[in-house]
Amino acid sequence: MLRDPEETFQAPAPPPLGQGYQIHLPPFKIEAGKELEVFYATQITDENGQTPQGDIFVNGFDIYYPTGSHHFILYRVTRLGLQRGILEKGIVPGIGVNAEDTFRVVNPDDPQATGHLALVDRLPIIGSQRAETSIRFPDGVALRIAGDTVFDMNSHYVNLLGTQTLIGETYVNLYTLPPEDVKYEARGFAVSNKDIEVPSQTTRVIEDEWHVDNELKLLRLLGYGNVTHLNLFQLTSHMHRHGELFEIRQTSTGELLHRSIAYDNAPFDIFDPPIILIAGDGLRFECTHSNYDTDKTIRYGLTSEDEMAIMFGFYYIPIIVE
């Protein structure tokens, strides 16, 4: 993930007018021998500089950033998060290339200081570990997002072996559909197993599950009627550098749906046609971590030297949007 100091980063073109929006995490500095994880809050605006009225329907994302990033995640801040003031927590001046840009820095020893691990404050939308990522949903499938949503752009850069200051930055293009072209609503999900403990000179495998029944109960509470199944159309995973294998299987059949052997380049698996998951079914993952190059026990944490095991996915609700 080291970056060539001579590399230049060009801003990508935004979506054509009327077909989406572009948001930008401005440039910030990562000093040599350091790693830095930041949040930056922003909103989408239309051609008049106003936040859109009502909901928008997003059916694709492009993510662009310079190499050297460990990850990028796009979140939406919840009403509770706004009320709790997470946008005022962790502000560190002086790291932005432009002094007027405000970044909040994650403290790995106190991640809750910025509400980092509280999924009541912000909810993940999409993420990437690749310098260029393009994701498109099936025809007629889109995420419903309020036009006045406050987005939290989360960027994590690692410059531990570098000898020069890196500049981090991210652009995200959100592609939209007109409401009349949306047939089905998409929803994202994530499962994270934090029970990681890998002593030196050992390999450990952890696992976790995601259950359709839990999602069906939630959807009914949200007013989606008597939903009986879900249509899974995308899966990916996330681990750190001691992760050597991540596999996701369908619970009922044992079929392998996703496999990653590269912690910094997990594939985005797209299912076309989607996988139909009925009540009683679900997904199960196994993540293998090996610790043969340190003399300490590796546990869950936020830095590149800690570990994670997270499954991400998207499904759409098989009820036609009206």
Shape: globular
The rounded Rg comes to 20 Å
The arrangement of helices and strands along the chain is: EEEEHEEEEEEEEEHEEEEEEE
Structural class: mainly beta
pLDDT < 50 stretches: none
End-to-end Cα distance = 45 Å
- Give a quick account of the main beta sheet: strands, pairing sense, barrel closure: 9 strands, mixed
| Record field, number of beta strands | 20
Percent of residues in helices comes to under 10%
Q: What's the tally of helices?
A: 2
Report mean pLDDT, rounded to a whole number.
Answer: 90
What percent of residues are in strands? Answer: over 45%
A few lines on this structure:
The chain is mainly beta. 5% of the residues lie in helices and 48% in strands.
Summary tags:
five-stranded antiparallel beta sheet; mainly beta; 20 strands; 322 residues
How would you describe what is shown here?
With 322 residues, this protein is mainly beta. Helices cover 5% and strands 48% of the residues. The chain contains 2 helices and 20 strands. It has helices at 79-83, 212-221; strands at 20-30, 34-42, 55-64, 69-77, 104-105, 122-128, 132-136, 141-146, 151-159, 166-176, 184-192, 197-198, 202-211, 229-239, 243-250, 256-260, 269-278, 282-291, 298-299, 309-316. The strands form 4 sheets. Strands 1, 3, 7, 8, 10, 11, 14, 17 and 20 form a 9-stranded mixed sheet that branches. A 5-stranded antiparallel sheet has the order 5-2-9-4-6. Strand 15 and strand 16 (256-260) form a beta hairpin. The radius of gyration is 20 Å and the shape is globular. 35% of the residues are buried. The mean pLDDT is 90.
